[in-house]
Amino acid sequence: MSMEQYLEAWIGLGGQAAPAATGHADAPAKPARLILLGAPGIGKGTQATRLSQGLKALHLSTGDVFRAAKSNQNKGLTPALQAAVGYMVRGELVPDETVVDLVRERKAILAGAYGFLLDGFPRTVPQAEALDGILTDVNTKLDGVLSYSLPIEKVIERISGRRMCKQCSASYHLKAMPPKKAGVCDKCGGELYLRDDDKPETVRVRMEAYEKSTKPLADYYQRRGLLIEISADGAADDISARTMKILKERCGLVPA
Ligand code: AMP
């Protein structure tokens, strides 16, 4: 099975069984089995994409499954998934039991030859405990839990510099990726604005909420010797280089 087929099986919403792990010509010699943690706006998404390419690991996001469920609302979703979409739309967390069931249904993917980068799961300690059980079931162990962090003032500086086009939703950054003409979209000439949830006061609230909810999770993995803290300061390239160096030293993982 190719990486793409595995990813389709992860998103798959019809309740079909996940594929069993079989041989793969292009799979990495040592699959990476990692969890990614990091506050919104910290650049975790960028790092996930780079790591997934570098390590040839499946980038598995529970948020992606729920977003796919949302766009498939009328196509035979299970009642649990329909309810999950409701939570997501209201900006609330989906109940642990529903998220855990969804991952459990796809547990064979976690034992696959490509390994995985779990993004957005686990989000709570009960989810982490359930994941331990699921991984034991499929005879697989985590290599580590990457936790990206940045002082709150820097996150605010980064996020509050973001600008979005009112017309075409293209995004810019006043420092890192400024438009050619201030306040005007390069692509369509639309007006650029600061999203409400990117305003400093809102970012501060979001960050504090994130830290409060993630701290117990980080502590959980720290106690198990799995937590790997990585500074998310600097350019994306620097953060990637830092990550690959520490993964080699701590976990023996190298680019595939
Ligand atoms: P994300 O893309 O990870 O920010 O997830 C988007 C939304 O999906 C979240 O706001 C939650 O409503 C839901 N969600 C995704 N993963 C989880 C999870 N592990 N536990 C609870 N809710 C989740």
Short description:
The chain is an alpha/beta fold and 256 residues long. It folds into two domains: 3-150 and 214-251, P-loop containing nucleotide triphosphate hydrolases (Rossmann fold); 151-198, no CATH class.
CATH topology of the largest domain: Rossmann fold
Count the E strands: 8
Helix content: 40-55%
- Summed up, the domain count is 2
Largest sheet: 5 strands, parallel
Distance between the termini: 18 Å
Number of helices: 10
Mean pLDDT: 90
Choose one word for the global shape.
globular
Bound molecules: adenosine monophosphate
Provide a descriptive summary of the structure in words.
The chain has helices at 3-11, 44-55, 62-71, 79-89, 96-105, 107-110, 125-137, 152-160, 200-223, 236-251; strands at residues 32-38, 58-61, 115-119, 144-149, 162-165, 171-173, 192-193, 227-231. The chain is α/β, with parallel strands linked by helices and 256 residues long. It has two domains: 3-150 and 214-251, Rossmann fold (3-Layer(aba) Sandwich); 151-198, no CATH class. The strands form two sheets. It has a five-stranded parallel beta sheet with strand order 2-3-1-4-8, sandwiched between helices. Strands 6-5-7 form a three-stranded antiparallel beta sheet. Helix 3 (62-71) crosses helix 4 (79-89). The longest helix has 24 residues, at 200-223. The two termini are 18 Å apart. The structure holds adenosine monophosphate. The site of adenosine monophosphate has 14 residues, from helix 3 and helix 4.
